[in-house]
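hey
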């Protein structure tokens, strides 16, 4: 199996974008885990998860995925068996902002009575 094939038309994240996302996530007040996955054709998908995700106690594996895309950086939320589009950010700073917002929304859904994900 070759990497995470979530988009047949995924572009490529540049080395500069990967470095900016990595540096940006590491500079946040809340720590994030970042794992790169390289596909068959050399495309990189970054999987990012805030450290509090492990402490949420939901038992659900989830991450924000980032890929190169036409027009910027494509973000998706992978939670359990679901894969939801977050959006396309024009650059690394916007991608980090979208990732944090998506993580907050996901956390709020996990904290609802019954632990249901936000729709």
């Amino acid at each position: 199996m070759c990497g995470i094939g979530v988009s047949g038309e995924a572009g490529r994240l540049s080395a500069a974008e990967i470095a900016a996302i990595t540096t940006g996530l590491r500079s946040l007040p809340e720590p994030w885990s970042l794992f790169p996955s390289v596909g068959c054709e050399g495309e990189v998908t970054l999987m990012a998860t805030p450290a509090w995700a492990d402490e949420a106690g939901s038992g659900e594996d989830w991450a924000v995925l980032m890929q190169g895309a036409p027009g910027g950086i494509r973000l998706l939320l992978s939670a359990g068996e679901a894969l939801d589009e977050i959006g396309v950010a024009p650059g690394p700073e916007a991608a980090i902002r979208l990732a944090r917002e998506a993580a907050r929304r996901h956390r709020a859904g996990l904290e609802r009575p019954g632990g249901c994900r936000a729709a």
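The chain is about 30% helix and 30% strand. The CA atoms of residues 32 and 50 lie 4 Å apart.
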